[in-house]
Design goal:
It contains twelve helices and seven strands.
């Protein structure tokens, strides 16, 4: 009896397993059909667009040629543009004033207020009429500069927050003001005017905030310097005391008491710390030297690392290549127009 019931029990299990495989097969079939339908849709769009372009190829070709000729003529009419750059290192957050002033200069150029610009840069209005744009960007940085920026940024955060930001995240998400080295770029229609603009650019760093920040830095250095000098004077006095103690011990007669052979006793030396004091004094004097170097190095709001060139470089932007831009725009606009026309025609026919 039990042997006869085994085939009857296995038969429903085989039927369930077969239905499961059929369901999985249908699922894969639907998935592949969906993928194929996407490719068919994309292919039909390409064919539909190509058909519209091929049907109107002559019209598009003529318009593209005419646009290219107009662009070539525009290139000959428009004056050549030149640019030059200077690199600066800013101190006391003067970079913010520089950025604001360059935006102001661009606004004056846009408004054609050349009289104000000429007064700022101490040049004639004709020279300023040749200037077209001021730009400010990040300057070149070494890996050491990036590490210093990261260390300064981490120190400005609390310990729990600093653990969540690694070096690579910081580098990838830096803004233009993260560093202190900047590239100032000037674009003009005359190639030999850039040197005359340096005085005006150099005056762009002066601001009351940076002046106060420099004064605050100088006051802090003065306070730290006075404290260090007092500490050094106190250590010198203590060293003199130690020296006097050692001199007295060397001049005094050593008291010896012998309790027998091999057991000599003598007066113990005083435990002085002149070596530790000397090391500490060296550290303090090194700190004084660093403060003096900082004050000498950062004695102004900026330092020019490289000046403008005598003769600017010719600007070769793709946007100024009108012989290429005009035909490309004409081709795109005409193609979109014919595609729209064919689409409208298709919709009307579909409704019928």
């Amino acid at each position: 009896m039990s042997q006869d019931s085994l085939p009857q029990q296995s038969q429903p299990e085989e039927e369930d397993l077969g239905q499961l495989f059929n369901a999985i097969g249908k699922l894969f079939e639907r998935f592949f059909n969906f993928i194929i339908s996407i490719f068919e849709f994309l292919f039909s769009i390409v064919i539909f667009g190509s058909k519209a372009i091929i049907e109107n190829f002559k019209t598009i070709l003529i318009v593209v040629i005419v646009a290219g000729a107009l662009g070539f003529g525009m290139e000959k009419i428009m004056p050549e543009r030149y640019d030059s750059t200077m690199l600066v290192r800013t101190y006391f957050d003067a970079k913010y004033q520089l950025y604001t002033n360059l935006k102001y200069y661009n606004a004056l150029i846009k408004d054609e207020n050349y009289a104000t610009l000429a007064a700022i840069f101490n040049v004639d209005e004709g020279t300023m009429m040749e200037v077209k744009e001021f730009e400010m960007g990040k300057g070149p940085e070494s890996e050491n500069d990036k590490m210093q920026q990261y260390d300064a940024f981490v120190r400005s955060l609390d310990s729990s927050r600093a653990q969540d930001i690694d070096y690579q995240d910081f580098i990838n998400n830096r803004g233009i003001f993260s560093g202190d080295i900047f590239e100032i770029r000037v674009e003009a229609t005359r190639k030999d005017i850039f040197k005359s603009l340096e005085e005006g650019v150099n005056n762009s760093f002066n601001n009351l905030y940076s002046v106060k920040k420099m004064q605050q830095r100088d006051s802090m250095i003065t306070i730290r310097r006075n404290n260090i000098l007092r500490s050094i004077a106190e250590m010198d006095s203590l060293q003199n005391v130690y020296i006097n103690v050692l001199e007295e011990e060397s001049q005094a007669t050593r008291a010896k008491i012998s309790l027998g052979e091999g057991f000599p006793l003598q007066q113990e030396k005083s435990n002085t710390k002149e070596y530790q004091l000397l090391n500490k004094e060296i550290e303090l004097r090194d700190e004084l030297r660093q403060m003096d170097e900082e004050k000498v190095e950062e004695d102004e709001f900026f330092k020019v690392m490289s000046t403008f060139q005598e003769v600017g470089n010719k600007v070769n932007k793709i946007s100024s290549k009108y012989s290429l831009v005009f035909p490309a725009l004409a081709f795109i606009l005409l193609s979109l127009g014919f595609l729209t026309k064919n689409y409208i025609r298709f919709v009307k026919n579909y409704e019928r």
